Amino acid sequence: MAPPTEDQASVRPSLFRIKRILSSYPCDKEILKEMLQNADDACATEVHFVKDPRTHPGERVFDESWRPLQGPALCIYNNSPFSETDLEGIQKLGGCSNVSVFLGL
Description:
This protein has 4 helices and 2 strands. It is an alpha+beta fold and 105 residues long. The protein has one domain.
């Protein structure tokens, strides 16, 4: 297997951080409340819930445990754009002490 490219190497730590954060996120009805609270905190005026019935191939996933997560899915988004502070927090994801506050955990 070839060594990762520079772009892949810079992305990989973020993927591991995201995986770690997602594994600690609630996986029950509380997630819906959390998404509504996040939208409210962002001063959003709309929240959209979209059922995506597709199932994607599972050959290229981060880890075997992600195979069952290839669909279907419930996509949730709101109409509040990310601020510069939000984008900086995303870029530093897992590397700063304020990640739990940023993600509303």
